[in-house]
Amino acid sequence: xxxxxxxxxxxxxxxxxSAFKLIQVNxxxxxxxxxxxxxxxxxxxxxxxxxxxxxxx
Length: 57
Prior knowledge:
Elements: H1 4-11, H2 19-29, H3 47-54
Helix pairs in contact: 2-3
């Protein structure tokens, strides 16, 4: 599947397009704050955990 999010994820070196969903959810609900730890269980290819590393709320 190729759409604008897949292409953008590849251009930004992200593992999956789902990383953009994490950004959207966090902007709306602020679930990840500066001192929080993020644990990504049972995922592949790990897009949320990968993006969580670089989030700076």
